[in-house]
Structure formats: structure tokens, C-alpha cells
Design a protein that fits this description.
mainly alpha, 434 Repressor (Amino-terminal Domain), about 50% helix, globular
Length: about 70
């Protein structure tokens, strides 16, 4: 199931450039671009670091497309 992300919106709301966010979480600007474009799914560790740097929860940054309810299969 595809993953939708809201990294760009959260980064802009935090008034951070891609370069500044990348520096905070220890990746390249190109990695941030790829994540924002949905071309790269970050590791759990990087997702947690992004959320912390942006002051939001991981669930605010990433969600499964298709919207299955939790616990349903």
C-alpha cells in the first residue's frame, strides 16, 4: 500500500529550507527532496528524526493511502 507524506507542508510550516531540515536530521538535501516527492520512504529512525525536527508526530508526516482503519485487515 502506498505511503502519502506531508513532509513538505510540515517543513514549510516550520519555516525550514530543505537544506536546513537535512542538516538537522543528518541527511542530504537530495534525500529530503526525494522524501517530499514520495520517491524515497525513510527508515523508521529517519521518520522519527524528521518528526522531532519538525515538532510533529510521525503520524502527522506519513499515512497509508487508501485509509484502512487501524486493526482491520
Amino acid at each position: 500500500m502506498p505511503v502519502k507524506n506531508h513532509v513538505r507542508e510540515a517543513r514549510q510550516a516550520a519555516s525550514l529550507t530543505q537544506e536546513a531540515l537535512a542538516a538537522q536530521v543528518g541527511v542530504t538535501r537530495q534525500s529530503i527532496i526525494a522524501i517530499e516527492q514520495g520517491k524515497y520512504g525513510p527508515s523508521v529512525k529517519l521518520a522519527l528524526e524528521l518528526a522531532a525536527a519538525l515538532g510533529v508526530r510521525v503520524e502527522d508526516l506519513f499515512e497509508l493511502e487508501g485509509g484502512r482503519e487501524r486493526g482491520s485487515r
